[in-house]
Amino acid sequence: MAAAPYVPLTDSDFASAFPSSRKVYVEQDGVRVPMREITVGGGEAPLRVYDASGPRGHDIRAGLPALRAPWIEGRGDVEGGRIS
After folding, report:
1. Ramachandran quadrant class, 55 (left: phi over 0; alpha: psi -120 to 50; beta: rest)
2. Is pTM, for the whole model, over 0.85?
3. Which of 13, 36, 48, 53 could form a disulfide with 9 if both were Cys (CB 3.0 to 4.6 A apart)?
4. Is the per-residue pLDDT at 69 higher than 70?
């Protein structure tokens, strides 16, 4: 039996599942960390939590881009091999 084709979740899927939140990024030293900003009632500031959902619209079979490779290599403590 053939596997069903991969269909990534859309922004609309996430908006329906998490109606009181949005994906934001906290950036420092060229590294972007995904967060979910959750609206809290009563005049409180939004709550930010780590968002491990991954990039939307990206084919998971292709793998993720090596965004942190320059940072990892720049530390000078990696010996050859694959950097993920």
Report:
1. beta
2. no
3. 13
4. yes
Distance, CA of 57 to CA of 10 (rounded, Å): 7
Q: CA–CA separation, 29 vs 51, rounded Å?
A: 19
* Predicted confidence (pLDDT) at residue 35 exceeds the cutoff of 80: yes
Q: How far apart are CA 12 and CA 57, in angstroms?
A: 11
Distance between CA atoms of residues 50 and 71, nearest Å: 21
Alpha carbon distance 34, 52 (integer Å):
7
Start-to-end Cα distance in the chain: 32
Which element (helix H / strand E) includes 11?
helix 11-17
User: How many Cα atoms sit within 13 Å of 10 on the Cβ side?
Assistant: 4
Q: Is 37 exposed, middle or buried (0-12, 13-18, 19+ CB in 10 A)?
A: middle
